[in-house]
Amino acid sequence: MGSAFDTLARPAILAAGRATRLQRAAERLPVTRRVVRRFVPGETVEAVLTAVADLRATRRLVSIDHLGEDVTDTATAHANVQAYLRLLDALAGRDEPVGGVAPLEVSLKLSALGQALASDGAKIATENAYAICRRATEVGVWVTIDAEDHTTTDARLAIVAQLRRDFDQVGTVVQAYLHRSLSDCRELADARIRLCKGAYDEPASVAYRDHDEVTANYLRCLAVLIDGPGYPMIASHDPAVLAAVPRLLRESSRGPGDFEYQMLYGIRTDEQLRLADNGDHVRVYVPFGTQWYGYFVRRLAERPANLMFFLRALAGR
Predict the structure, then answer these.
(1) I need a labelling partner for 262 at 20 to 30 A (CA). Which of 78, 145, 230, 278 fits?
(2) What is the mean pLDDT of residues 140-157?
(3) Is 54 known to be catalytic?
(4) Threshold 0.70, pTM exceeds
């Protein structure tokens, strides 16, 4: 079912994420907001801190994303920076490192910081990312620069390289469905890398479109990262990927503290808890904020189970 769903339904769902009329309609439906809470615990810092406390009580690590992307004005970019600084102030002193690993992390999209601005976008986004990284370093929180669509990859990696010269804790993301990703993993194997499959509707000229091909490339990329000197972050809910990890670890010198699993808030919670109880590092990606629609649609597109969950809720309203 996965391959057929990816081929037929996923592009249509992702297209809905770009339709402003559908967005306005969805945001007005009370049932939508109730279902969204499965994936997005709230719109405020207070709401996300409650979710963080619940996750940390079960030994899970946390990555927090203030939702928002594709910013087209400097005022909104500045507001997003201030939101992250307020979040980091609230996180200060909440947790100590676990075996050299920061329990708390923030995830940034460069387009939320101004990268897409018509004038000096890269410069503005870099300066804004520096401001967030400086405060994160002061309070002991990691930063990961998130991936967006393939057209932004080279610019993102160039900015990440600048940030890493001053902030060695900065990580970034490789999306395994892109043809270039195996090469990127070889280049970045000394860094902290979140390896995910990818959540955007990319053309076949740059990305694998078949579910099994994406999984196969994910495992090739993961083997490179595990063999490298960096810190792999295995961002997947796929049973085939998770089942392959112990074998890859046995073939390397890595122990439980030398990598982490990452999963999304509200998805496969039982598996998150099982891995954490097994002594592995498990980090949960927790988004918050008012700009939840695009994130929500990508979660529906990733797995048929998520879409069916939403449709059943709609039918029952």
Answers:
(1) 78
(2) 97
(3) no
(4) yes
